[in-house]
Amino acid sequence: MFANSPTIVNMKYCLFLCGMLMSFAGFAQNLPENKASVVSIRTPVDSADSVSSNVSVITGYATYYAKKFEGRKTTSGTRYRGKKMTAAHLTLPFGTIVTVTNLSNGKSIDVVVNDRGPHSKKYMIDVSEGAAKELGFYRKGQSKVEISYVLDVD
């Protein structure tokens, strides 16, 4: 008699939604932590207008572009060239100079951000083929790296 009443149906729906919310909250607590760590250091720059800069250091995994992207346009409009020291990052402004250090061998280079990517949660930066060779992880696919960059704050 009461099985199909609107009140009972709404209560069942509400209980179902509450159960789903509780299960999602439980799953979220069991997720692995993000492997990238960020350290931000704010230092004043010696200049007349005393503009400060923000140095950021992030640790995570890097990969490199496949050969098939050679000559293709990047998001910034320039063409990808494997021999140039360039990189892709999801959020950094184009033209940002990023110092990438391979943590397994200590090799370090400067690359310029000219593309968006990598589009994977595992990797934080894509470097060009030439940069991967300089860093010593070409043909290995990936490497744990530390990236540091300076963003000017007005």
From TrEMBL:
Positions in coiled-coil regions: none
Signal peptide: 1-28
Membrane-crossing segments per the record: none
Domain RlpA-like protein double-psi beta-barrel positions: 59-146
EC number: 4.2.2.-
Single GO biological process annotation from the record: peptidoglycan metabolic process
GO molecular function: lytic endotransglycosylase activity
InterPro entries with a match to the protein in the record: RlpA, RlpA-like_DPBB, RlpA-like_sf, RplA
Pfam families for the chain: DPBB_1
Primary role: Lytic transglycosylase with a strong preference for naked glycan strands that lack stem peptides.
NCBIfam families: rlpA
Protein's name in the database: Probable endolytic peptidoglycan transglycosylase RlpA
Gene: rlpA
